[in-house]
Amino acid sequence: MYVQKYLVEKAICSRKEAEVFLREGLILVNGKKAKPGVPLSPTDTVTLTPAAQRRLREKVTVAIYKPRGIVCSNVQEEGRTVFDIFPQFKHLNTIGRLDKESEGLLLLSNDGLITKRITGDTHDVEKEYEVKVQEHVSNTRLAPMAEGIMLSDGQTLPATVEATSKHSFRIVLREGRNRQIRRMCGAIDLTVTSLKRLRIGELTLGTLKPGNFRKLTLEEIQSLRDPQASSRT
Questions:
Q1: Is 84 among the residues known to form the active site?
Q2: How far lies 150's CA from each of 160, 189, 191, in Å?
Q3: Which SMART domains would you find in this protein's record (predicted)?
Q4: DSSP letters for 31-98
Q5: What is the largest CA-CA distance in the chain?
Q6: Which end of the chain is more exposed for a tag (fewer CB within 10 A), N or C?
Q7: Comparing C-alpha atoms, which of 169, 147, 142 is closest to residue 157?
Q8: How far apart are the first and last CA of the chain?
Q9: Which residues are bridge partners to 194 per DSSP?
Q10: Residue 176: is its pLDDT beyond 50?
Q11: Contact, 133 vs 185, CB < 8 A?
Q12: How far apart are CA 61 and CA 69, in angstroms?
């Protein structure tokens, strides 16, 4: 195993960050600067220099409640953006976008590892949504969503779906295609009237109100950087 992969698997940093640290001599193996292309042995000890550790501490991740009618973009032509509401976070990136008419939990971050964990193709971070529709729903009618639906960009992964009333249901996804839930609903003739994201991994919307934010705790950040951590404790 190479040192970059080791750091990613230990949820220390992203691969891109590891490559930068390696190039700048900020990774130590047994107290000496790591060399590119040299695999680790089982007895090696890997540490980061104080400079690399300071950079990682400067990472910021914020949970916001995105209101309806707001876009997850910094392009003004598309309408009012999350960065108009939160100008102090313009240096951060949105993770796992919500379309303009959707609302709920959204993350802003400059942490490459969290971005990769949530938006990457490993599908190990759940996203939970509350969906309201015009038509009557039941678990039977929603079954195709649970099994996976063929969309224009391929078959969706199986999902956890449960009707919560005659006109609403909750769905848990492990992927994040463009307007996925709306398209899945359209495939079974359901018309979405409201879509709210409630949860990303173990992080919930909680008591946040539309247009409000809070910074994540160290424990919450670690749960997003390493989704398997809670299952090991």
A1: no
A2: 16, 14, 18
A3: S4
A4: TEE--TTPPPPTT--EEE-HHHHHHHHT--EEEEEEPTT-BSSS-GGG-SBHHHH-GGGTTSEEES--
A5: 65
A6: C
A7: 147
A8: 25
A9: 132
A10: yes
A11: yes
A12: 23
How many angstroms separate the CA atoms of 36 and 206, rounded?
A: 44
Beta-strand pair 203-204/127-133? unpaired
d(CA 182, CA 31): 53
For residue 206, give the DSSP letter.
T
pTM given for the model: 0.78
Amino acid of residue 214: R
Residue type, 135: E
The residues, ordered by sequence, that sit 6+ positions from 113 with a Cβ below 8 Å of its Cβ are: 8, 11, 12, 13, 14, 17, 225
How far, in Å, CA of 205 to CA of 28, rounded?
39
The pLDDT of 74-82, averaged and rounded, is 76
Where do the DSSP E strands lie in the chain? 27-29, 32-33, 46-48, 61-66, 93-95, 103-109, 127-133, 150-151, 154-155, 160-165, 168-173, 192-200, 203-204, 213-215
C-alpha–C-alpha distance, residues 51 and 231, integer Å:
31
Q: At which residue do the structure tokens 């108009």 appear?
A: 84
Residue of 84, 99, 111, 124 marked active site:
99
Q: Which domains does the chain have, with CATH numbers?
A: 3-55 (3.10.290.10), 59-122+206-233 (3.30.70.580), 126-200 (3.30.70.1560)
Q: In Å, how far are 139, 155, 184 from 162, measured between CA atoms? A: 6, 20, 14
**For 42, phi and psi rounded to 5 degrees?**
-60, -25
User: How many residues are given for the chain?
Assistant: 233
Is 60 exceeded by the pLDDT of residue 230?
no
